[in-house]
Amino acid sequence: MAAKRDLSNSAHSKESTSGSEPGHERAPINPWMEALQTIGLSIVLAFGVRTFVAEARYIPSGSMLPTLEINDRLVIDKVSYRFKTPSRGDIVVFHPPAAAGAQFSHEAFIKRVIGLPDEVIEIKDGKVYADGVALTEPYTEAPPDYTWGPKTVPSGSYLMLGDNRNNSDDGHVWGFLPSDRIIGRATIRFWPLDRLAYLADPSYGD
């Protein structure tokens, strides 16, 4: 049995590309080159994940207070909306429409989905109405002190509002957001650690 094992090992060594035969020794691996290859692969994988799957974002302003605070770090899911449409209450990262101003053309905003396609939205008396029904919104900083609408949300578009209604450059200023401007949905706040949380969808009772 021992001889059989030795034969098997010998045959394997001759047929493999391990470089064990005389005159066919493999060149030593350059550790710097190996490190560069590893780093390069990591960068490619990270780029692919960030482009197609998920990315991290931080909050630069108070427009989403009290839900999101300045410098909160979030995970943005970039896959879900390939299979389903946004729902009311989703917190979404997007590129603003042209009406927001040329200075914001390469920026990313974060707001909450409030108005859905084909709904009639009106803001009055400190409340948001969707098709005539007042929305219950416990996540807002304060009731809006402005009036807006009634306006019909175009098909394939959404009305995006900040939770800090009276301090947010959002849809009540620049109008509706076409769905092709959406980057992804905020799902998890991972920093600071004492505020680590899944950003659950609110219930509107519908």
TrEMBL record:
It is a single-pass type II membrane protein. Residues 1-28 are annotated as: Disordered. GO terms for cellular component: plasma membrane. The active site is at 63, 111. Its main location: membrane. Keywords: Hydrolase, Protease. Pfam families: Peptidase_S26 (PF10502). This is Signal peptidase I. The gene is lepB.
